[in-house]
């Protein structure tokens, strides 16, 4: 069956709003290392990793063996009404790595569900439905997470279970304060936070939720230290800080294991998902015990933290740590950043190069006026695919190329990808 035939079947039974990449969408049927093969036999270097989910890459023996061992027991599922050894072991490891004192962990099936749980804990603990979020943010497609998403392209409904106010600071490139030095930029954003709390809320706000690097928002981020400065204001009002680490966790930024650590602050809770399972569905919340234990009713998760997913996740974390993939993300990220900056010197269509580690982006603009250029971005994404490189897309205006390959990326693969990117930009001429 061709991709075109499969696409016709897809359109007949799947929702219209289910976004697909490329003029002619592809099916990925095989993978090894950092390379994948589509249903018509074409091979690609994967620089989006299933939206940052295949953090280690494809066909990793240690992870596959852990899953096979669990399947071999005959137990794929028991539910959280029973003890799950792998779940407990994984929770112990994440609690230790979190840096949150006496942390407790609750497992879910996705980042959306993790953020929904964090909102539940925070609003219950604070007895308030008021929430602060960042402009240009994205936190999932659930009812509560859509409500706190500050990006119109992904806000499907104005209906909301929470009262949300949005704060400046996370998307600097098009901020009215972008030309300020870091210290002044932070001060202005902190002043805005205080003003929003004092004028747009009743004061008893439950939490502020932030992405250390905004994912769907185009890998944008504030200067390091902003969220520590925010935390000082939040503490004055008793407001909790939640860090959405669904994309920034597990060492991907290179410099820290968690993205929020760049701000030298320990949040009250962190949410996680994506790369933890290297393709297996898992997410969760790690939080201070008084926050995690704030629910006054019974609860559970039928599939969250199941034996299969937690076996895969435990093997993934062990592989990450044992092979120091955080250091590799820093090295390969620096190489890729240098390559992107070199290309930007040749092509004024690149308005901004940003990110950390193996979480990098290029914002595409009209060189004449610096306006977002979504059309050229789509063309470039198609051109890289034609040349054997898969990259992501995002940003408020759909004009950002996102690159987040598996953290096992090699020097040679990075060089190859940079050349494909340069050739793709040359095709614009």
TrEMBL record:
<dbReference type="GO" id="GO:0008483">
    <property type="term" value="F:transaminase activity"/>
</dbReference>
<dbReference type="InterPro" id="IPR015422">
    <property type="entry name" value="PyrdxlP-dep_Trfase_small"/>
</dbReference>
<keyword id="KW-0663">Pyridoxal phosphate</keyword>
<protein>
    <recommendedName>
        <fullName>alanine--glyoxylate transaminase</fullName>
        <ecNumber>2.6.1.44</ecNumber>
    </recommendedName>
</protein>
<dbReference type="InterPro" id="IPR015421">
    <property type="entry name" value="PyrdxlP-dep_Trfase_major"/>
</dbReference>
<comment type="subunit">
    <text>Homotetramer.</text>
</comment>
<dbReference type="Pfam" id="PF00202">
    <property type="entry name" value="Aminotran_3"/>
</dbReference>
<comment type="similarity">
    <text>Belongs to the class-III pyridoxal-phosphate-dependent aminotransferase family.</text>
</comment>
<keyword id="KW-0032">Aminotransferase</keyword>
<dbReference type="InterPro" id="IPR005814">
    <property type="entry name" value="Aminotrans_3"/>
</dbReference>
<keyword id="KW-0808">Transferase</keyword>
<dbReference type="InterPro" id="IPR015424">
    <property type="entry name" value="PyrdxlP-dep_Trfase"/>
</dbReference>
């Amino acid at each position: 069956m061709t991709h075109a035939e499969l696409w016709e079947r897809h359109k007949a039974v799947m929702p219209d709003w289910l976004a697909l990449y490329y003029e002619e969408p592809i099916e990925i049927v095989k993978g090894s290392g950092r390379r994948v093969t589509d249903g018509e036999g074409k091979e690609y270097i994967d620089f989006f990793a299933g939206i940052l989910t295949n953090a280690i890459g494809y066909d990793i023996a240690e992870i596959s063996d852990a899953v096979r061992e669990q399947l071999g027991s005959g137990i794929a599922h028991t539910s959280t009404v029973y003890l799950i050894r792998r779940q407990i072991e994984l929770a112990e490891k994440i609690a230790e790595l979190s840096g949150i004192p006496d942390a407790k962990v609750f497992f879910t099936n996705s980042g959306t569900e993790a953020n929904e749980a964090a909102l539940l804990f925070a609003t219950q603990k604070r007895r308030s439905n008021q929430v602060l979020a960042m402009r240009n943010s994205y936190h999932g497609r659930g009812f509560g997470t859509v409500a706190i998403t500050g990006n119109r392209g992904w806000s499907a409904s104005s209906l909301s279970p929470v009262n949300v106010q949005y704060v400046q600071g996370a998307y600097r490139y098009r901020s009215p304060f972008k030309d300020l030095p870091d210290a002044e930029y932070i001060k202005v954003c902190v002043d805005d936070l205080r003003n929003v709390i004092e004028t747009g809320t009743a004061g008893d706000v439950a939490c502020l939720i932030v992405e250390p690097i905004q994912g769907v928002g185009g890998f944008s981020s504030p200067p390091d230290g902003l969220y520590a400065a925010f935390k000082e204001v939040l503490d004055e009002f008793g407001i909790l800080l939640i860090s959405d680490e669904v994309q920034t966790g597990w060492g991907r930024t290179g410099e820290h294991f968690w993205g929020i650590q760049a701000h030298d602050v320990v949040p009250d809770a962190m949410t996680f998902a994506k790369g933890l399972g290297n393709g297996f569905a898992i997410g969760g919340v790690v939080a201070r015990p008084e926050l995690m234990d704030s629910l006054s009713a019974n609860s559970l998760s039928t599939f969250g933290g199941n034996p299969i997913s937690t076996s895969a996740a435990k093997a993934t974390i062990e592989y990450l740590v044992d092979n120091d993939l955080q250091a590799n993300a820093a090295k390969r990220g620096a190489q890729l950043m240098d390559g992107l900056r070199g290309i930007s010197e040749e092509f004024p269509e690149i308005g901004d190069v940003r990110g950390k580690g193996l979480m990098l982006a290029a914002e595409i603009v009209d060189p004449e006026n610096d306006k977002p250029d979504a059309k050229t971005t789509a063309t470039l994404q198609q051109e890289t695919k034609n040349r054997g490189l898969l990259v992501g897309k995002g940003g408020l205006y759909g004009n950002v190329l996102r690159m987040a390959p598996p953290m096992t990326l090699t020097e040679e693969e990075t060089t190859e990808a940079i050349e494909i990117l340069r050739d793709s930009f040359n095709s614009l001429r």
